[in-house]
Write a structure and sequence with these properties.
- The chain is an alpha/beta fold.
- It contains nine helices and eight strands.
- The protein has helices spanning 23-29, 45-57, 71-78, 101-107, 131-135, 141-149, 186-196, 210-213, 215-230, and strands at 6-10, 35-38, 63-68, 84-90, 116-118, 124-126, 173-178, 200-204.
Amino acid sequence: MTDKPAIVLVHGFWGGAAHWAKVIPELHRRGFGSLHAVENPLTSLADDAERTRKMVRQIDGPVLLVGHSYGGAVITEAGDLPNVAGLVYVAAFAPDAGESPGQISQELPPAAFENIAPDSDGYLWIEQDKFHESFAQDLSQEEALVMAVTQKAPLGSTFGDTVTAPAWRSKPCWYQVSAADRMIHPDNERRMAERMKPRKVIELDAGHASLASQPVPVADLIEEAALALSAP
């Protein structure tokens, strides 16, 4: 491979593709022309993985999958397609076979776990007045307010959906840990990263929304992964 792979960005819970708004122009400036961002329904891991697979299947050539938060579980499940060349995890879940994001969170609860509340229809929300401190404490009040008001709630049952065959066991991977994460315990991120035996792990002094608060080092990691995959 001599050309850069296409990059497919996969969002997590409580947000959509727009959570990548700062990473996308950063990658574009670096010469990445084939950029894609999935908009997942957050209705089940199977639904979200299939939506991601559909986008990947539309792309000719190698693909680098990048997942934030729950998006890490999605790329773990959807990364089995033959043109997926590698995986980048951004403060993300990387479950093993039979594991779910909910199980991982219960084993080592994050600081803001209690700020997640279900509604009467079974969707889980981060309480709006707690969103800034929970999800994006290193963003401005205004940025966090927009995220809080526009958050996309997952069905609560999605937390319990388990991965079948984790792609990180067979594909090259990279991981970014957020040391001040309040939505996934940082020690859980470190544990998941360590067992993946990734090509590289970076740790940022960032909250859960590192893709928004520190887009440059996140883009650095994505670029490093892409260049490694395109090296002759």
